[in-house]
Structure formats: C-alpha cells, structure tokens
Design brief:
Layout lengths: L1 H40 L11 H17 L4 H26 L5 H8 L3 H11 L2 H18 L10 H21 L7 H14 L15 E2 L5 E8 L18 H4 L5 E8 L5 H8 L10 H4 L3 H7 L3 E9 L7 H6 L4 E6 L12 H9 L5 E7 L24 H28 L4 E8 L21 H4 E8 L1 H6 L9 E3 L3 H8 L2 E2 L4 H4 L19
Parallel strand pairs: 2-6, 2-7, 3-9, 4-5, 4-6
Antiparallel strand pairs: 1-10, 3-8, 7-8
Length: 526
C-alpha cells in the first residue's frame, strides 16, 4: 500500500512536469507563429490565406524544427528567433501603428540611416501607450522563452519531431506557392539593406572632369549654398503663414527672391540629396555614381569649395551625402554617430567666417543644417520658445516646429549678414532637402515616404544677392517658376557665373530660356 502510494506520489510528481513540457512545446510554437502573424497582418496585397492564423502556425514549424534537432540549444535558438522574427516584425507593427501605413522602402532606409540621438528623439516623440505595451510584450515573450532550457525529456519526443517535420514540409510548399505575396520580414529587411547599400557605392574614384567650364567673372566672389532639413514652405511667414516665423528675414524682404513653386525630388534626405547634389533625374539615376557632383563641377570651374555640416559624418560606407561632401576642398562635420551635436545651426557661423577669411578669390561654401528635424524642441534654444499651444499634444508639436523655424530665420539672417560683410560679389541660396507634414491636427509630424504628402515635397527656395552682385551680374528672376531641386547643379552654375555646362540654359531657374518641368514632383515613385 505504501509502495502504491509511493508510486502514486511519483506519478503525481510527473504529471505537472509532463504538462509543463507539453506547455513548453506549445509556447515555442507560438513564439514562432506570433511574429509571423503580426508580420502578415501589417502587409497589403497578400492572399487571404496568408493572413490566416493557421497559416502562421504552419509556417512556424519551419523555424521550430531546429529545436528538435538540438533540444539542448533552446536558449541560442530563442535569441536567433528573436533577431530573425520578432525584431523585424516589431518594426513593421510599430510603423503601422504610428503611421497607419505599411513600412516601405523609404521607411526601411530611414531605419538604417540614423544615429542614436535621432533615434531616441523619434521614439520619444512617436511612442504611444500601445507601442510601449507592445515593447513590454516583446521583451516578456523573449524572457519567458529563455527560461525553457531543454525539451529532450518530452514524452514521445520522436513522434513530436516527426509531426513537426511533416508540417514543415507542407509549410515550405505553401510558402513557395505564396512567395510573391508574402516573404518573412527578415528577408524583406535583408533586401532593403542590400538596396540601401547600393545607394552608398563609394565615389572614391576619378571622375572625368567637367570639360569646357569657365568662370564668366573675375575678382572676389563668394557663393553660399545653405541646405536645410525638414523645412515646410507653408510654415514660413514670408510665404503667407499666419505666425511670424520670419521676423529677421522679413526686415530684409526687399533683398530676397522667394520662389513659390519649388519642390524636392524625394521626401527623405537619404534619397533626395544624392539627386540634388548630382546630375541625376527621375529618368536617369546613373550620375549619382558615374558622374561628378555639383562640388566637382565648382572645383573644375576654378572655385575653392567648403562643406560645413551640422550633421553626422556617415563616411564612405553610408549615405551618399558624406561621400559627395568629401569632394570639397575643406570638409567639417559637427555631429557624430553618438549624437554629440552640440546645439543649433548657429555653430556653423564661426566656420563660415573662417571660410570667408580664406585668401581664395573664388569661393563656393556649402552649409548643411540640422534645421527643423524631429525632435523639434531640440532644434532651438529656450530663448526662441515663442509659440505654444497646449490645446493638444499635436498642436504643441506644431508650435515647437514653428519655434524651430523661428530659429532657422535667425540663423539664415546671421549667415546673410556675415556674408554681407565679406565684400566682393556674393550671394546666398537657401533650400531644404525636403519638407515636413506639420500643419494641423491631422499631420503625422514627419516626412514618412509611406505617406508622401504634398508638404513633404513643397519647400522654400530663397535667394539673396548683395549690391555688387545686383550691379554686375544679370540673372533672369521669375519667382513663380516651377523648379525641382534635382536640377540644383544648374542653378548653382548660373549663380556662380559658370558657362560651358550642357543643359544650363533650359534647366537653370535663373536662365531666360528655362523650361519648367511638366510634372513638378512624383509621389508615386515611392
């Protein structure tokens, strides 16, 4: 009787262990299936069966089978699955939650093309309670799975292994038939990373020089090209915005030419600036890697060039902006991958003064600003916190954006006044890389390519010329002209008085023979 009780006790001790093991198998299956299901539910254009939970459960067997092959390596497997399935699916669902759109090529590129401060600002600005709960859930799932050490003592282990193997074969056949409609996020992420890399082909090679270029004018001459960041034209008082965001530029409005119909080719820095700084167009992107940039052009025409940047230096292995910047005679960056940005675009003023003091007779100076990039409240000092709207969180974001625009106004006016004192012939041209959607309660306060709204493309384009320029350098000025900044090199050539550049007569907005584009910008390219 005691032995029976003893055996019964042993039996009772085994039952919870067996139940726990079966529960572990079920959880491991769910651990694979859940991110697959999340991934499929945040896509468009996939078959109805691909969004079925049972399809996700079947597909999970493909990733689960290694557990039966190496039952003592569950922790290693857990980490690998978290990297392969959970993290890519997490990016997908977070993007869908924030923007209501499936993450696209531009969204993946933005993910790859960031630094710690920018990423922290983005998360801090767009994180919602739902996203925070999701992150907690992801971490909890990972931690719970790490607690499972082995399933090799599972009763009927071989039977479960055989069943999983059969289901895996059926799943592979199913996935193969739906390949065009569904691929796991990790494979899409890999493809996007490869395409991102193709944008970063090293330009460290000798391009054929721009033959036949000549400077039309001699003597001291300086041209400053200021490239802003995330600047929407509709937030400038000079362009009709009700808030006074341009008090200092308004004081010299009579000296400015404000172009009203200018657009960027793309709504992200990574995609736009390689087109803006080279001779690439919507129809031909080969010049990005096969022809000299606007910097090369100015060098070949006899100008000494500077690139002064308030952004991080991505180096030759990342986005093409840094690579093209390196083609200038003098290059300085003021931010790094740790986000050590300092504060504000005014820090470029001493660098501008140093460039202006250089004895070179002909100068072309590029200033690349941090501008109004998110998080807006980090783009201006407290003394520029003029606007506030506590009626809602979104309206307060808009007020912060206007404060950042107010600070930009201060920086641009300071640059103009610094240039004015330099003497000789001088001009300053300002435009941003792209715009920003930050106009009302419905705005995303972003420049997400998945949304691609008009105000992400439509940008300010402001020209200032000193008196000596106006007296000696004729330009055809028509501020109503439509212009896409993918033709910026031709505008720069006209402004600097460079001749001998093919296409300058019809593609420079400062030319009397300028031909407006039939389509100002193309959102559908995204």
């Amino acid at each position: 009787m005691e032995q029976s009780r003893h055996e019964g006790g042993k039996l009772k001790a085994k039952i919870p262990n067996r139940a726990k093991t079966y529960g572990a198998i079920l959880w491991l299956w769910l651990y694979c299936a859940l991110p697959i299901y999340i991934d499929m539910k945040t896509r468009v254009g996939i078959a109805w069966s691909s969004s079925n939970p049972w399809f996700a459960m079947l597909s999970a067997s493909i990733f689960l089978f290694p557990v039966f092959v190496w039952p003592k390596r569950i922790r290693i497997w857990t980490i690998i699955m978290f990297l392969l399935l959970w993290i890519p699916a997490g990016f997908r669902i977070a993007h869908y939650t924030m923007f209501g759109k499936v993450i696209d090529e531009g969204g993946w590129f933005a993910l790859f093309d960031t630094h710690l401060t920018e990423a922290a600002g983005f998360v801090g600005g767009y994180a919602s309670p739902l996203i925070v709960l999701g992150i907690i859930g992801f971490i909890a799932a990972f931690a719970l799975t790490l607690r499972i050490r082995s399933i090799e003592n599972l009763p009927h282990f071989k039977l479960f292994m055989q069943i999983t193997f059969v289901v895996m074969l059926a799943s592979l056949e199913k996935v193969a038939r739906t390949e065009e409609r569904y691929k796991p996020a990790v494979f899409e992420m890999k493809e996007m990373l490869k395409k991102y890399g193709s944008l970063s082909v090293s330009r460290n090679r000798s391009f054929p020089p721009f033959a036949g270029l000549k400077k039309s004018y001699s003597g001291k001459q300086t041209y400053v090209f200021v490239i802003g960041e995330s600047d929407a034209r509709e937030h400038h008082f000079l362009y009709g915005y009700p808030r006074q965001t341009n008090p200092r530029l308004a004081e010299i409005a009579g000296e400015l030419s404000l172009y009203k119909n200018v657009a960027t080719p793309f709504p992200t820095t990574l995609k736009a600036l390689p087109y803006v700084l080279t001779f690439a167009t919507y129809d031909n992107k080969e010049p990005i890697t096969k022809k000299g940039s606007v910097v090369n052009m100015l060098n070949d025409a006899g100008f000494k060039t500077w690139w002064l940047d308030n952004n991080m230096d991505y180096g030759t292995g990342a986005k093409g902006v840094s690579i093209m910047a390196a083609e200038a005679n003098v290059v300085k960056f003021h931010s790094d991958i740790q986000g050590n940005e300092g504060f504000g675009d005014m820090k470029l003023i001493p660098e501008l003064k140093a460039a202006l003091a250089d004895p070179a007779e002909s100068k072309a100076i590029f200033l690349h600003l941090d501008g109004q990039h998110w998080a807006y409240k980090n783009r201006y000092p407290a003394t520029f916190e003029k606007f506030s709207d506590k009626s809602s969180a979104r309206m307060e974001k808009m007020a912060q954006y206007d404060n950042a625009t107010l600070y930009l106004d201060y920086a641009l006016r300071s640059m103009i006044e610094t240039l004015r004192k330099a003497g000789g012939v001088s001009a300053l041209l300002y435009f941003p890389d792209h715009g920003e959607d930050a106009i009302d309660e419905s705005s995303c306060f972003c420049h997400a390519t998945a949304i691609a709204r008009n105000n992400m493309f439509e940008i300010p384009f402001i020209l200032w010329r000193n008196k000596e320029f106006l007296r000696t350098r004729p330009l055809s000025i028509d501020t109503a002209r439509k212009f896409n900044t993918q033709d910026f090199p031709f505008a720069a050539a006209s402004l600097a008085g460079i001749t001998g550049l093919d296409g300058i007569e019809t593609r420079s907005p400062f030319s009397a023979s300028y031909a407006e584009p039939k389509v100002l910008y193309k959102k559908e390219l995204w």
